[in-house]
Amino acid sequence: MSASTTASAPRMSIVLATDAYDTLRPVIACLRRQTDRAQLEIVIVAPTESVDWAELSVFGAVRVVRVAAPLSLPAARTAGVRAAAAPIVYIGETHCFPQPNMTAVILAAFTDERCAAVVPAILNANPATALSWASYLTDYGTWGSGRSAGELEQPLVYNVAYRRAVLLALGDRLGDLLDSNSEELWPILHERQYYAHFEPAARTDHANATRLAVMMNIRFCSGVLIGAKRARRWPIWRRFSYVLASPLIPGVLLWRVRSSIRFGAPARTLPAGTMLAVAAGAVAKTMGEVMAYLGVSVPSAERRLTEAELHKLRYARVGTS
Question: 140 Cβ partners below 8 Å, 6+ apart?
């Protein structure tokens, strides 16, 4: 582990898991424009300690945590949370770009000790295509700029700022719980009487895949991993009930996306084919889930999903509508 710090303690640590520093440069460029960058600690978790220290010099502190390759995103993010120095940790992504005042607005929103996390509004960074909207609405539409500020029943796992002490109190389970496919983090935090606050004044722009094959791969692998997590928790009768009901699952997923349009795309006309792409992705995800419920393993699923997540900018045509 290597570190560079200033005299004042950071107020927020930004945890970024990556395969190489170059992958992070677009995000670092956005973070350099944060109005409170001198109060931020950048925690880079990667298989290498090679970073651009000159580029990082504007921040209050920088920490590099070296982890083994191949990279596991949940394990890397957990290592970053444990290594962070600030009381608030924001878990970011390589393809999600905070707007200039996001971190300052998030910090101001932590006014209640029972508030374990603050979720920013997530916007579509490349809204020109139907495939981008399909990906965005499926993954993030519920947390779009059209939602009002307030308590969330179903928060995100990443692109979220947490009280670090609340995460550390989860102990050895933290690595599993920071896997977005586990679905267990927030039920546990709710049981402990914590809640998440949605803050639409804090905004971040998320880039989405605009290649059909990549989008379908992400949906399928996500379904496999979610199904595998559920299969380990669920009794066999419940798994087979879902298999029998699987023809209905794409319709349920499609309905959820349609209901989130008012948050993710308020007063907007979506490109032709958006809902068709959502439906195709829902079918791919359902296929992955069913395979997992039936005990069919896909050993490459995590590697494929990790590669797509780390390098999504390669597959995202950036532009505006």
Answer: 122, 124, 156, 206, 264
In this structure, the chain runs to a length of 321
Domain(s) labelled CATH 3.90.550.10 in the chain stretch across: 2-206
For 171-182, the pLDDT digits (tens) are: 999 999 999 888
| 8 Å CB contact between 77 and 170 | no
pTM over 0.90: yes
Place of tokens 């795309």: 265
What pLDDT score does 180 carry? 87
Matching CATH number, 2-206, of 3.30.428.70, 3.30.1950.10, 3.40.50.300, 3.90.550.10: 3.90.550.10
Instruction: Give the DSSP per-residue string, 254-270.
Output: HHHHHHHHHHHSTT-PP
Q: How far apart are the first and last CA of the chain?
A: 43
Region 277-304 average pLDDT: 96
Phi, psi of 70 (to 5 degrees): -70, 150
Integer CA distances (angstroms), 99 to 102, 112, 130, in order: 6, 24, 24
